[in-house]
Amino acid sequence: LIQADDASRIAILPAVSYGIAVAARNTPVRRGQNIVITEGQFPSNALVWRRLARESGAVVRSIAAPAQARGRGREWTARILDAIDRDTAVVALAPVHWTDGTRFDLAAIGQRARDVGAALVIDGTQALGAMPFDVREVHADAVVAAAYKWLLGPYSLGFGWFGPRYDDGTPLEEAWLARAGSDDFQNLVRYVDDYRPGAARYDVGGRSNFVLVPMAIAALDQLLEWDVARIEAYCRRITEDLFGPLVERGFQADDPDGRAAHLFGLRAPAGMDIATL
Structurally, how many domains does the chain consist of? Predict the structure, then answer.
């Protein structure tokens, strides 16, 4: 679903906020640096960065959305790129904005973040399972997603992919299953300090949930069978006839390449009462 090469880089999480907090705990941020997010970003990928900025003396750069509908995705991406500089420590955003489906050029943003040495932390909840995503193409350092949205899984479960930047990080909790040799029950109390390889150190305690995990596996298998590219094409096909008549009536929408196929917003004509509509 994310075109990752190594499954050991996936951690089992209880929520997006947990995975983002893992990244925040293990991303050095100094006084005078900045953290780039988008205006109106979902709180799970914003609040912890605001706290980190306060604690470290950094600043949060919240990039305002363009006023126009047409070209909104391109213009917003351009503003994000302009905001990333040599003092940027973190770029935290999503493939699409959760309020109106504005699509960001993550490949360009990821390359810019890499050029300046900033960490790219992505909340993929509104995209994974509904549109193609390639963790290698976007140069991400961490990708986190809740299972209950487009991944069709249960609540209270999520996934996090953590790249090499976070290989030696400190987890939020010391789950015993995350330790090397934890499958050897005879020696569980011969405590070891080493973690299992990959992102297992970031697993939430109680990851082997006998109810939620089978539900998530079934959902992921279904998505792989359907194929995410086909899902996106289907969503675009059943909505494409909607935009022409609405634009003729004064509504505004971004171009197809600037909005997601499964999640999009329409701006009403001036003077129209939304409550009445």
Answer: 1
62 forms beta bridges with 37
CA angle in degrees (0–180, nearest 5) for 138-237-76: 40
CB 269: neighbour CB atoms within 10 A?
A: 11
| DSSP-H helix ranges across the chain | 16-25, 47-56, 72-83, 106-116, 212-226, 228-248
For residue 160, give every residue at least 6 positions away whose Cβ sits within 8 Å of its Cβ, in sequence order, or none: 10, 11, 13, 19, 22, 142, 143, 144, 145, 199, 202
* pLDDT tops 90 at residue 68: no
Q: Check residue 108 and give its pLDDT.
A: 98
3 state SS of 37: strand
Residue 276: band (very low, low, confident or very high) from pLDDT cuts 50, 70, 90:
confident
Cα separation, 202 vs 9, whole angstroms? 10
Q: In what order do the strands lie in the sheet with 88-93?
A: 10-13, 158-162, 142-146, 119-123, 88-93, 34-38, 59-63
Do the domain assignments include residue 139?
A: yes
- Amino acid identity at 63: I
Confirm if 33 and 89 have CB atoms less than 8 A apart: yes
Does residue 194 lie within any of the structural domains? yes
Q: Which amino acid is at 84?
A: I
Asked if the model's pLDDT at residue 12 lies above 80, the reply is yes
> Which CATH number do you get for residue 23?
3.40.640.10
Q: What are phi and psi of 103, to 5 degrees?
A: -100, 130
- Three-state secondary structure call for residue 182: coil
Residue 164: partners with Cβ closer than 8 Å, 6 or more residues away:
none
